[in-house]
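INTERNAL AUDIT FORM
Audit reference: QA-55
Scope: verify that the stored structure record matches its stored sequence.
Auditor: D.O.
Record contents follow.
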Amino acid sequence: MGKSEFSATGVGIMRRLRSLTRAGQVRVVDGRLALLTSCGRVIDSAPAREVRVERPWFGSDDQAVIAFNDTRYRLRLGGPAAAATAPHVSPVRRLREAVGQAQAVG
């Protein structure tokens, strides 16, 4: 993966109060962010320049709120897969950096 690319598995994805998946995927590839189910079906995707990554007001360090296509999604990025890839760096921070780099490139 290049510098602006990011991939996380085992991600909980919620829209409003509804859980879309408890084991989804988040990918930032080629300047595009995609949310996928555990089976690989696309939930939503958008160019990185249209994506906002925020920290929720209330929540743990492994949660993020992303907004694009007039929709807000709450992500829970923590879990064994995230801890195994980079135990000293927050997965939310890595997602923010990847989206920021993709926005700067494209």
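Auditor finding: record pair retrieved intact. The helical segments are 80-85, 91-105.
Action required: none
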